[in-house]
Amino acid sequence: MITPPQATLLIVDDAAENLALLGDLLYPTYRVLAANSGAKALRIANGTPRPDLILLDVMMPQMGGYEVFERLRADPATRDIPVIFLTALDSPEAELHGLTAGAADYLTKPIRPTLVLARVRTQLEVKRARDWLKDQNAYLEAEIARRMTENELTQTVAIRALAHLAETRDGETGNHIRHTQAFVALLAERLRTHPRFAATLDQGYIDLLTRSAPLHDIGKVGVPDAILRKPGALTTDERHIIQSHTRIGADAIALAQQDLERPLAFLTLAQEVARWHHERWDGSGYPDGLAGEAIPVCARIMSLADVFDALISPRVYKPALSLGEARAIIVAERGTQFDPDVTDAFLDGFAAFAAIARGHRDPVPAALA
After folding, report:
1. Cβ neighbour number for residue 195 with a 10 Å cutoff
2. 77 and 179 share a domain?
3. Which of 13, 136, 150, 186 is the most interior residue, by most CB within 10 Å?
4. How far is 194 from 340, CA to CA, in rounded Å?
5. Residue 66 main-chain phi, psi, to 5 deg
6. CA-based Rg of the chain, rounded to a whole angstrom?
7. For position 91, what pLDDT does the model report?
8. β-bridge pairing 8-12 and 53-57
9. What does pTM read for this prediction?
10. For residues 274 and 152, is the Cβ–Cβ distance under 8 A?
């Protein structure tokens, strides 16, 4: 393989005759830069064009070759430039020291022209191959990142579409999805350093919970319109039917998971949220009557977010409450419907929750206009 003529070499030697000898040997094929001291070598190495290969004398006054090499390696701009040590010390120990330090090769003086040319050509070919692989890896990493972003966007759109389908069934708007998702993210962030939640609420869990939150009411697609949009009080049977949306949603997500080679973490979390976001801290909720710590953290957070938004939003069966009225109800349900610490995190950050609510107020349903 012929080395491209544009390859740039830096020769470093304090002896002018050695610089001249190597320059005459290498100049016909390569662009040659020269330095007669370690300090000058470091300046050239950081300049333009940056050397593709450095031939570095070991024994130099003031700053020896090993010190120059260490400084090259310490600088991100020069650490990847291969270095061939040149030395008059012809001993296995000296060669081992140079190679152990990280040099690409080791040549002894007096210089043998054919050997120098062969070693230089080999190291440049190795560098070119390494640079090609680095470029390929960078391309692949960029392509993977692009595809992951595209997949996440597709996933988000699909989630939103399914969630909107469920919400529009009972006359709610997309603001409920945005509200509850924002409330969940804010609650989780405020709880992440709490001793009871820190082990669970790392950034990865919070991201998954935020992504899965819009699916909490997906089971409403299985509830008849007459019940979902009934303006008056529900009968006992109707209440049982509407409560079934938690099981319907969780079962639908579980069924979707069966078609996958391995479970998706955000769908597993979405399944928990869908099934248990109507459980109550005191055990009187549905569908399974879970109480206290038996309710998954994700469902406890979702529960408060969902109830708060329901309180401040108009529905066909009720008008919207004020933020103050909704806050008072949340306070009253601390320790009965809601985890006390989740409630406290909500109350401590109430101004931020109120700001989110004011930013996306639902229009009044026609039945209440």
Report:
1. 7
2. no
3. 13
4. 12
5. -65, -35
6. 34
7. 62
8. parallel
9. 0.60
10. no
